[in-house]
Design brief:
The complex is a heterotrimer. Chain B is mostly helical. Helix content of chain B is 77%, strand content 0%. Chain C has a domain of 209 residues. The chains are: A mainly alpha, B mainly alpha, C mainly alpha. Chains in contact: A-B, A-C, B-C.
Chain lengths: 116, 315, 492
């Protein structure tokens, strides 16, 4: 069982590292980094599903008869784009927050909000 | 790790490593994209953002026990979930049995493109890809709404020009080398754009490469020079046109009485129609991606050199 | 063109968005968006009629049949949702031009409409599609445009609210992505209908259980269901008024739709409710949500915050109806979905009018508004009565059906608690009435005038709808019943 599933387990550990950074850290940029790690790990998870032992890249050629599954790869191409779109918007927000609050630390922003 | 700069670089390395993992997993298209996005664009944006927000993270005071608990519960649930999963690499797994075989066996007759990823992406699931283009367009609009700066006064512009000139005296050799390189980068972008049918590549990757040529140019020659070459509102129009081009391919099939994105309506021979459809939508994707990337980058960088910042912390 | 209605429903606003960017004049952009949204409304009406008479419509994208390509599958449930979203969007958009004039800098007006249209199209796309991964893609379009729209608020806290929403929303979306991946792993398909056929074979596996948990938690994050609601009050309170009115009326409804779609159609009733202690969990969370959020609403000093908490409480009622897992319970949830959209649309739009005139929605600034803006305040009062559930308003109809469904199931204590929750609503609505009508006007506010017609027309359209559908319930009840019965008929 270990041999069959260890790949997924490693990916899950990576995912959880990213997830932990998102919810535990107070720095806005670091949260975005965590989000990015979380998402990239999910991509790895999908791509791992697509792999077939002895298969090759899904580009048709005469001498090959075993291909890896193309569908998860298509999904992840889309998901990567979604990921970069989210990252860009999140960074833009962080920059604006820095200008408005003078800080990108969660607790300092909360403190300023409570004062208002 | 309290230095955000180091964190960003590590993230970039992670992106590159996962890209190499994707190659090992036979996902060449994905690897190509991840390398250009994960290791390239997102790191670049991260660096620009850090330069504006400061690179040090404050030490946190609270103990993240709750967070740790949430993460452990989620992780254990996932591991629990994997226990009944088909083993890694097994060819008997349901995902290799149900839908994928048709893509692998029939896509050559139905679409006539050797790269199966391209045929699924651009034809079988063209609507998802349309959604993807709209996502990137939305992000561009969002960044524009958040960061766009209103026109500045001539004095400020003069200040920036002075600063830029001072910067670029130092990069003479780099500038010359880059000038030679840029045509090749653009050429490569076009190759990737039109070669997506046969090898890995396609509109998205081409768009990113194309945009990166512009980034390199901007970084070395300064925002102002770049702005003179590339008009901001023109780029916005291009981004919109990319989305419209993609959508119009679908609308044309509608008017021919076929379903949305049914490319066989585009030519007499269905397979030729598929080819034509894929060509057009990839062009739409490339156009939107390249222009949105440029919009995002310009607005980040433009924000960075607004006089408001430069007055406070002298350049 | 009739066969193409399902796709036109989504691509008209979707293609209108980039076109709108090309129109540089904001006024033109507004007119254009209004037309696009109105067309979507028209189409959704035609679709609903078509579905009610001839059953489920299937539209295959690119001409590829279902599990290989992406299909749109419109049944009574999504037709109803499409109608709610496009109708509310059109009505709210009517007031947009006036409202954003004061709340958003002039150079961002065109962008505002572009993002608004994208958001509308994405919500319609989520509802119309029959493909699980396509849901994820459109969910992200709607989220990204929502983050940007919220961040356009004047207050700097809008930025922070938007950032928090972004983090929670992205975690939610990633959870849904993991869930979809696990489902795909076990069945090899992404099409929802195909999934509902293939999932029962593997229903007993731990992987499917995990997939279910991730999808549901992800949706609940988007839904702002108690206790995952923390991002919502600030996001609603600091967003531009139009955005608040639009999202309060539609965004949570889309999330409820996804919850219903995944539990009832994709995983199936037997899996969702017999396999897991979901019923108890949801009914408890729903009721606790009603009480915690209603109590929090009582203590708010900003009226926008107050109604935002009230929204969380109303989501609680919908969750209770959903957790009964009978056709009657689901009918009550769907009715409340429709009715709540009418109430909150009217209320937040009226608040937009207040914002337009006095530049604030702090409760203390409402003093004397009952005399200065009588027409707007009357709308807020009627909307408030509807929230409480007074007879002759839509609020009464949905509470009535909810209580009936609960009692039919023999849950007496729950019925009592639902009625007790309405008492809390009386308290928070009364606070506004008290300040607006029984306190003297603040000094220097004599010049405040009634809101302009561009506000009053849409606000009162919604208020009259509140009363009309509160008296003549045939149409709304018929559709809601048809939708819930179709779900119970289809699910294996």
């Amino acid at each position: 069982m270990f041999i069959g599933l260890y790949n997924y387990w490693v990916v899950i550990v990576l995912m959880m590292v990213g997830f932990y950074i998102v919810i535990a850290h107070g720095n806005l940029i670091k949260k975005i980094v965590g989000l990015s790690i979380f998402q990239t790990s999910v991509f790895i998870f999908y791509i791992s599903m697509a792999k077939v032992d002895g298969g090759s890249a899904p580009i048709l050629a005469d001498e090959i008869n075993q291909y890896s599954n193309p569908l998860p790869q298509v999904l992840i191409l889309t998901a990567i784009v979604v990921g970069i779109a989210t990252t860009a918007l999140a960074l833009a927000l962080a920059v604006r927050i820095k200008e408005a609050y003078g800080s990108i630390e969660e607790d300092e922003i909360q403190k300023q909000d409570n004062l208002d | 790790m309290k230095d955000l700069l180091a964190v960003a670089m590590l993230l970039s390395i992670y992106g590159l490593l996962s890209a190499s993992f994707f190659v090992a997993m036979d996902a060449v298209d994905v690897a190509f994209t991840e390398a250009s996005v994960g290791a390239g664009i997102s790191t670049l944006l991260m660096l620009v953002a850090i330069s504006m927000t400061g690179r040090a993270e404050h030490p946190s005071r609270h103990k993240p026990l709750l967070a740790l608990a949430v993460v452990i519960v989620t992780g254990s649930l996932l591991i629990y979930g994997t226990l009944d999963m088909p083993y890694f690499g097994s060819a008997e797994a349901p995902i290799h049995q149900h839908i994928a075989p048709r893509y692998i066996n029939d896509s050559m007759q139905e679409i006539g493109v050797p790269n199966i990823v391209t045929s699924v992406l651009a034809s079988y699931r063209a609507f998802d890809t349309f959604g993807e283009v709209v996502v990137i367009f939305t992000a561009g609009m969002g960044v524009l709404a958040l960061l766009s700066v209103v026109r500045r006064s001539p004095v400020d512009i003069a200040k920036i020009v002075l600063f830029n000139d001072a910067m670029h005296e130092r990069h003479l050799i780099l500038r010359i080398v880059t000038k030679i390189m840029i045509p090749f980068i653009l050429l490569f972008a076009f190759y990737v754009q039109f070669h997506g049918d046969f090898g890995p590549g396609g509109g998205f990757q081409a768009g990113v490469i194309f945009a990166s040529a512009i980034f390199v140019y901007t970084m070395l020659f300064g925002m102002n020079t770049a702005r003179r070459v590339i008009n901001q509102s023109f780029i916005q129009v291009l981004a919109a046109i990319g989305v419209l081009l993609y959508g119009c391919v679908g609308v044309v099939s509608l008017f021919n009485g076929k379903k949305f994105f049914d490319y066989s309506a585009l030519a007499i021979d269905p397979v030729a129609g598929q080819h034509l459809g894929i060509l057009f939508i990839e062009l739409g994707v490339g156009l939107t991606v390249a222009s949105v990337m440029v919009i995002i980058f310009f607005n980040f960088a433009g924000r960075n050199e607004t006089p408001r910042n430069s007055d406070k912390q002298d350049l | 063109m009739i066969v193409h209605l399902p796709i036109l429903q989504v691509i008209i606003p979707l293609m209108a968005a980039p076109l709108c960017l090309l129109l540089t004049r904001p006024r033109l952009a507004w007119l254009f968006s209004l037309i696009a949204s109105g067309l979507a409304f028209l189409i959704s009406g035609m679709l609903l009629q078509q579905v009610m008479t001839s059953g489920t419509i299937i539209y295959e994208m690119g001409g590829w049949e279902a599990p290989w390509g992406i299909e749109y599958r419109i049944d009574q449930l999504n037709a109803l949702l499409l109608l709610i979203i496009s109708a509310l969007s059109t009505i709210v958009l009517f007031a947009a031009e006036t409202s954003i004039h004061k709340e958003i800098p002039a150079d961002k007006h065109t962008l505002f409409y572009v993002l608004y249209l994208l958001s509308l199209a994405a919500m319609l796309g989520i509802v119309a599609t029959g493909d699980a991964f396509n849901v994820f893609v459109f969910l992200e379009i709607s989220s990204l445009s929502a983050y940007a729209l919220i961040a356009l608020g004047q207050d700097r806290r809008a930025l922070w609210a938007s950032y928090q929403y972004l983090i929670m929303g992205t975690i939610g979306a990633t959870f849904i992505l993991i869930g979809i991946g696990l489902m795909y792993q076990m069945t090899g398909t992404l099409n929802m209908y195909d999934l509902s056929i293939r999932l029962p074979e593997v229903a007993q596996t731990r992987t499917v259980f995990t997939a279910f948990a991730f999808v549901i938690v992800g949706i609940c994050l988007k839904l702002a269901m108690f206790p995952l609601h923390l991002w919502l009050p600030n996001a609603y309170a600091y967003a531009p008024s139009i955005v608040t009115a639009f999202f309060a009326a539609t965004a949570t409804k889309v999330a409820i739709y996804l919850l219903i779609r995944f539990t009832f159609s994709v995983f199936g009733l037997s899996f969702s409710f017999t396999h897991l202690p979901l019923q108890l969990l949801f009914v408890t969370l729903g009721l606790v949500g009603v009480f915690v959020a209603s109590t929090a609403a009582i203590y708010q000093t900003n009226v926008k915050h107050l109604f935002a908490y009230s929204s969380i409480a109303q989501i609680g009622y919908m969750i209770v109806g959903f957790s009964i897992s009978t056709a009657a319970g689901l009918t009550a949830t769907l009715l409340h979905l429709f009715n709540h959209a009418l109430m909150k649309g009217a209320l937040f739009l009226a608040l937009g009018a207040v914002m337009y005139r006095i530049g604030s929605t702090q409760l203390s600034n409402f003093q004397g508004l009952g005399r200065q803006m009588p027409v707007t305040m009357a709308a807020i009062v009627i909307g408030g009565l509807s929230l409480i559930g007074v007879p002759l308003t839509v609020g009464f109809v949905s509470k009535w059906y909810l209580v009936l469904a609960v009692i039919e199931n023999g849950w007496w204590p729950v019925a009592v608690l639902i009625l007790a929750g309405s008492l809390l609503a009386i308290v928070y609505v009364w606070r506004i009435v008290e300040v607006a009508y029984f306190k003297p006007a603040l000094a220097g506010t004599e010049t405040i005038q009634e809101a302009p017609l561009s506000f009053l027309i849409p606000v009162w359209t919604l208020v009259i709808a509140n009363i009309y559908f509160g008296i003549d319930t045939r149409l709304s009840v018929q559709v809601a019943q048809a939708a819930s019965q179709s779900l119970f008929g289809v699910s294996p």
